[in-house]
Design brief:
Length: about 270
């Protein structure tokens, strides 16, 4: 699933193309997944924002929310799996989605009742609102595994499987630890690690995995996967200590970590 670095990369590349342009029409064949799209016609895209893993087309008093799902991408060229065609003045954007888990909906600005994850989302990790103290306080409120807590989007926005695993490894925090068990120092390490990993992933345009599903709007891949330390590397040597990396399933999601660098107790 595209995570914050991939979605932000898309936003940065698309905003100069579509900002200020009027929507002429939106074509699709599934009104259950792509809702109230007729309301966008004739409205001008003031800007393209991102919140967590969501893209938000600012249309004045309305917003067009796009969630890319497991395999979605917004492209400037039509593909085999194009599901939505957004016609603007002088530009066309194509929503490609092989697995059909993506969603799009027109809502009144700030009315996210159809998207409960967005409504309860925590602070943006690269913003000033994301503080180490506030992050620790949020983790203290749940006994869920720390990775599960991060995936909930409540302590911090935008993290998915890849960037949780990479950040937890960098911070030397075991993903199965109860979130409330992290000390203030451990939470501070994890706070720094999240910022560092996301900044580097943004520099490299996100991660394009072996399935090649995620591509930038230009059709180019991301390159952060070259620097993955643990994600998808079960059985390989930990790049920090040399121990064998492990994979477990946590909440139905593959989780990768080093049993030595990320001990089950406090590190």
């Amino acid at each position: 699933m595209p995570e914050l670095p991939e979605v932000e990369t898309v936003r940065r590349m698309l905003e100069p193309v579509i900002g200020g342009r009027r929507v002429l029409g939106i074509e699709h064949d599934d009104p259950r997944k792509y809702r109230r799209t007729d309301l966008a016609v004739g409205r001008r895209v003031r800007r393209l924002r991102r919140r967590g893993k969501f893209l938000l087309f600012d249309l004045g008093e309305l917003e067009m929310l796009v969630h890319l799902g497991m395999s979605g991408s917004l492209r400037l060229d039509e593909g085999t799996h194009t599901r939505v065609r957004i016609e603007l003045e002088g530009a066309t954007v194509f929503f490609n989605d092989p697995r059909r888990f993506g969603r799009l909906a027109l809502v009144r600005r700030g009315d996210y009742r159809e998207f409960p994850t967005l409504a309860r989302m925590g602070p943006e990790p690269l913003s000033r609102a994301f503080t180490a103290r506030g992050f620790h306080a949020s983790l203290q409120m749940t006994k869920r595994a720390v990775k599960t807590a991060l995936l909930s989007q409540e302590p911090v926005a935008g993290l998915g499987n890849i960037y949780c695993d990479e950040s937890l490894w960098l911070a030397r925090v075991n993903p199965l630890r109860p979130a409330a068990s992290l000390s203030a120092d451990e939470a501070r390490r994890l706070h720094r690690a999240i910022r560092r990993v996301l900044r580097r992933a943004l520099e490299l345009g996100g991660s394009t995995l072996g399935d090649g599903v995620y591509l930038r709007p230009s059709g180019e891949p991301g390159y952060f996967q070259i620097e993955h330390r643990v994600y998808g590397r079960a059985g390989e040597a930990c790049p920090r200590c040399g121990a064998g990396l492990q994979r477990v399933v946590l909440g139905g999601r593959s989780t990768h970590f080093c049993p030595v660098c990320q001990p089950p107790g406090r590190s």
